[in-house]
Amino acid sequence: MIALAQLGFGPQLAMKIYQAYGEEAIDIIHENPYQLVEDIEGIGFGRADEIGRQLGISGSHPARLRAASLFVLEQACLQEGHVYLREEELMERIGELLDGRLSGAVDGRAISQTLLMLSEEGKLIAEQGRYYLPSLYFAEKGIVSNIKRLLGQTPPSAFAESEFLLALGALEERLGMQYAPQQREAIQQALSSPLFILTGGPGTGKTTVIKGIVELFAALNGLSLDPADYKQGEPFPVLLAAPTGRAAKRMSEATGLPAATIHRLLGWNGAEGFSRDENEPISGKLLVIDEMSMVDTWLANQLLKAVPNGMQVIFVGDEDQLPSVGPGQVLKDLLSSGVIPFARLTEVYRQAEGSSIIELAHKMKRGVVPDDLTAPKADRSFIRCRAGQVVDVVRQIADNARKKGFSVKDIQVLAPMYRGPAGIDQLNKALQELFNPPAEGKRELSVGEVVYRVGDKVLQLVNQPEDNVFNGDIGEIVAIFYAKENIEKQDLLVVSFDGIEVTYTRQDLGQITHAYCCSVHKAQGSEFPIVILPVVKSYYRMLKRNLLYTAVTRSKQFLVLCGEEEAFRFGVAKQSDGARQTALAEKLAGAAAPFVEVELPFEEANMGMENVTPYDFMGDEPS
To answer: So what's the pLDDT on residue 464?
Structure first.
């Protein structure tokens, strides 16, 4: 351990290295420090390369080229969301990384030879001039094969038009509403398709259509939607799920039926992985997945292979929102493939018709910013300020909302960046002082520069399925116990997530953060009565149309924009930085050559992803 510390490794990394290599750790590092990149989570190419230079390893050493090649492709997938890189781009990026850390260029032929060797070993998969990580190649392959399996099923029992209209009329009478023609067609098409996609922007009635699909599915098939009618262990016929706990809760509130996170539905067990798969599929007759735009390639594959034959599947989402944080753009690719029946809702209905927030969102989708952006509306306003004024302005807006009777749970500030004078960190400090200042007798716990107090609004950053708490859930600190007061002799912090209490030790506090202000990515899948959205030029690097669109559509009642109008217009005009490189749509449409048939054991198929889980991609988009 001392020798590892002398190489610059902190206690945690040193322990990981020792657990992996044991007493041979130093010998292994001296022989090939680049092995660390493949074996130890948290050690990147730069760290290993620094040790390599200290040890005098040649800049063109095969081990260096190998580590750089794997690192570049992994970073492209994990940081940029690509599923593959084209050979020429991958070679160019590898060359830039190697040359940037070494005087003199590395021979391109050596890089090409390294990629060939890695593909022969099964560490990478090459197909049609594209290079994949094995885990992503086989996940994409799994999605294609399972989509084709589901589409190839015998279509659901056809119902006579008169039978459908009779059931629809009874439902409309019971709900006291009438479905618009576009919505009615979507419901009918969904009920007659083994696999179906429902997409549309805010206010187009996706939730209303979901309820109609579920209710009519039950009515036409003679099924009860009362959980009390089913014995313990007897599967409920309709499964509702979403990527986040808050999105699942919204589904449940809208339909009156149980809903779960996708991870809970699939029986995620942490280190043991998922319990539901093709060998032990989920049970039921209809599966509805909401917020499908948030689902990445890995999770989509896991979900689809757990769907048994005979189950109808409906994906719901808004393709114009941010793509998944993890690799891929599954919803977009499924829609563009042209092989899956879908309905795109475009008409704005009823209460949404008078919403200037909804109107703004639909214009933003087209890259348009209204001329009256800064004009005050009944449900929307714009306050001009610069980056240095954002914290004070946001604090004042939040204080005014509080004085009008809105609670801290109702008010959500969203921002795209953590650092800087207008970043999430500074906003959280100011808002904590506003909503939950220190007071005599109020308990608090300091972790570095961060102070947690009883009453604080906090955000869960990792998934804890054993506690039924998931990444993105918002809770409140309800108790703090000091080490001297309990038998564990540890400081303990208790957070309530809608009645579910979770206890954290001081070592666990990296799993939560303040939630007065959170990132747009963390808010995806949620809605709030009041959204305060600062947009300034210092956010320049992060400002994109889909990010601002996602932020604006989180607001249910009031939207307060503050900052610089030019920055907002710039962001709406800017499309995402290039399309993600995926082959899903192409392969679903049959345009690509058949998959390379490569038989790899499970361990090799997940090469480079051993410590990665779907939960690692439920957070913020990496910068």
So the answer is: 81
The closest alpha carbon to 87, from 124, 123, 62, belongs to 124
Q: Which helix (H) or strand (E) holds 84?
A: strand 84-86
**Domain 355-573 class?**
alpha beta
Return the bridge partners of 534, or none: 562
- Report how far residue 134's alpha carbon sits from residue 151's, in angstroms, rounded to the nearest whole number: 26
For residue 605, which amino acid is it?
A
CB contact set of 90 (below 8 Å; sequence gap of 6+) = 69, 72, 73, 76, 115, 131
Question: Tell me, what DSSP letter sits at residue 50?
Answer: H
Eight-state DSSP code of residue 375: S
Which residue type sits at 586?
Answer: E
Supply the angle between the helices 356-365 and 545-552 in degrees, to the nearest 10.
160
CB distance 407 to 434 below 8 Å? no
Q: Phi and psi at residue 476, in whole multiples of 5°?
A: -130, 135
H/E stretch holding 452 reads strand 450-453
Q: Which homologous superfamily is 141-225+238-352 in?
A: P-loop containing nucleotide triphosphate hydrolases (3.40.50.300)
Q: What's the rounded Cα separation, in Å, for the pair 179 and 360? A: 24
Helix/strand/coil (H, E, C) string of 8-32?
A: CCCHHHHHHHHHHHHHHHHHHHHHC
User: Residues 130-181: pLDDT tens digits?
Assistant: 999 999 999 999 999 999 999 998 877 778 899 999 999 999 999 999 999 9
Domain ranges of the chain: 32-132, 141-225+238-352, 355-573
DSSP one-letter code for 467: G
pLDDT confidence tier of residue 352, bands split at 50, 70 and 90: low
Cα dihedral 496, 498, 500, 505 in deg (nearest 10):
-30
On the question of a common fold for 141-225+238-352 and 355-573, the answer reads yes
CATH architecture of 32-132: Orthogonal Bundle (1.10)
Tokens 């300091």 belong to residue: 446
Instruction: Identify residue 578 by its one-letter amino acid code.
Output: G
Cα–Cα distance for residue pair 475/495, rounded to 1 Å: 6
Output the CA torsion sign for 51, 53, 58, 60: positive
CB 386 within 8 A of CB 536: yes
